[in-house]
Request: fold
Amino acid sequence: MKILAIEDSGTQVAIIKRVLESTGWQIDTCDSLKEGLANHRDYDLVLLDLNLTDSDRYQTIAAIPQFETPAMVMTADDSDDIPQLVGEAGAVGMWRKNGFATDPSKEGSLGHLIDTIRYRLGAMKRRKERRAQIREKIGERNFGVAHEPAGTVGIEHLDHNR
Reply:
């Protein structure tokens, strides 16, 4: 898995790299939101610090939908509104950096969270592939549920009840 960590603290970068490279993942870093937005497309996941030197937490959250690569937010901010804002912006997860757990296998650690997200991303990819297969079988003109009459079987039903 290739991960881009957008983090401006050298100490945090060193910890993130040590923890995640021990799992065999490739980690590249940059220290600004602008640079991250320009270079994220070749990665499987973006780890995004909320408070960067070139943006505050709300500017960073507002930028999440611009990422084409799934983004996971990292923050030491314990404000109650942050998880909801991050979720609404489309982040695939959030990890609070306070209480850094350096064992990647422990629940609550960064490595454990990324494993969970990797599983979810794999499931999303498999659903997308399954939908493409179904679309091929039934033809594009019949695909989707928005125009189907009530009582017909939609693609979501087919995906979840194989």
In short: Residues 110-138 form the longest helix (29 residues). The two ends are 29 Å apart (CA to CA).
